[in-house]
Amino acid sequence: MSSILTVTLNPTVDLFCEAEAVRPVRKIRTSGARHDPGGGGINVARVILALGGDAEAVFLGGGPTGAWLDALLEREGVARHGLPIAGDTRVAYAVHERASGFDYRFVPAGPAVSAREIERVIEIVGSRDAPYVVASGSLPAGAPADSYALMAHIVAERGGRFVLDSSGDGLRVTLQKAPVFLVKPSIGELGQLVGRELDEEGARAAAMKLVDEGAAQMVAVTMGAQGALLATAGGVTRTRAPRVVARSAIGAGDSFLGAMVWALSQNWSVKGAFHLGIAAGAAAVLTPGTRLCLPEDIRSLYPMSPDGNTEREGGID
Can you give the residue ranges of the Carbohydrate kinase PfkB domain (predicted)? Predict the structure, then answer.
C-alpha cells in the first residue's frame, strides 16, 4: 500500500515544443517536441517518485488518449489505478517562443464525466489506507461540486490527511464542507476564493483566516517568482524563492506540492517541508516545458531556502 495516494479527475497528455516565433496564418516549424503525462495529481505522484517516495496515482481516463496517458505513466514507472470514462482524455499543448521567451499554453476543458464515474474514484479512495491523499487539479464538467469534499471526509474518518490543490468549486466547496490538512492555492486562486485581488498582505490575512476558521490546518500560498507563504496555527512563514534563470514555469506548483507532501510523509518538520517545496518549485522552473523538477536541482537549491537545511527532520537521499 502506497503511503501517498494522488487523485486526478481531469488529467492530460501534455505536449510541448519550441518555435522561433508564434505568428498567425503562417505554418510554424517546431522542434524539441516531448510528451508527458499530466494533470495535478499525476504530476504530484511523478515528483514524489523522483524523490524516492511511494505514491499511487488514481485517475480518470478514456479513449485513445487515455490509453496514451496510461502508457506514458508506465514508461515512467508510476504506480497507478486508471478508471475508464466514456469521454476522451484531453491533450494540452504548450509552445515556447524562443524570440520572446514566452510560453503559450493551450489547455482544453476536457471531457464531461458522469456522477457514477466520480463515485468509482471515491470508492477507490475509500478502499485505500494511505496516510496522505492528494486531490489536485480542476473538477471536470459533470463532476459534483462536493466531489473532493466527500473524499476528504473519508480520509479524515480513517485518520488520514487530505491535501487539496484545486480552484473554483473544487476549492470553495471542499473548504466549506470538509476537513482539509493542507491546501495549496496560488495567490490568484486564493483571490478568486475570497472575491478580490490580493497583494501579499491580503494573502497573509486570507490564509490565516482559513486556518482560524478551521477550513484547513495549513494553507500554502504560492506566488511564483516571489516564493510562497505558509499559514498555520502558529502564524505565517514567508520565504522567497531562490533566484534562478527561468526556462518555464509549467509544473512549478505541482513540483512544490509533491516535494512538500513527500517531506511531510517522511516526518520532516513543517517548515523544512515547506522550504523543500519552494526549492522544488524553483527547480521546476529550470527545466523546459512540461518536464518537472529534477532531484539534483532540488538538492542544489534546498540550502538556498532560508533555514531549510536546519528545519528538516531527515534528508534528501
Answer: 17-296
Q: Is 70 considered catalytic here? A: no
Q: Which CATH number fits the domain that encloses residue 131?
A: 3.40.1190.20
Domain count, the chain: 1
Query: Does residue 26 belong to any structural domain of this protein?
Result: no
The answer as to whether 9 is a domain residue is no
DSSP 17-57: EEES---SSS---EEEEEEEEESHHHHHHHHHHHTT--EEE
The parent domain of residue 185 ranges over 39-57+112-311
Q: Rounded to whole angstroms, how far apart are CA atoms 124 and 140?
A: 18
Task: Please state the rounded mean pLDDT for residues 38-66.
Answer: 97
Could you tell me the CA-to-CA distances from 168 to 107, 172, 174, 175 in Å, in that order? 16, 6, 10, 11
Choosing from 254, 297, 307, 317, the catalytic residue is: 254
Q: Is residue 287 part of a domain?
A: yes
User: How would residue 305 be classed by pLDDT, with cut points 50, 70 and 90?
Assistant: low
Does residue 81 sit in helix, strand or coil?
strand
0.70 exceeded by pTM: yes
Assess contact for 183 and 199: CB atoms under 8 A.
no
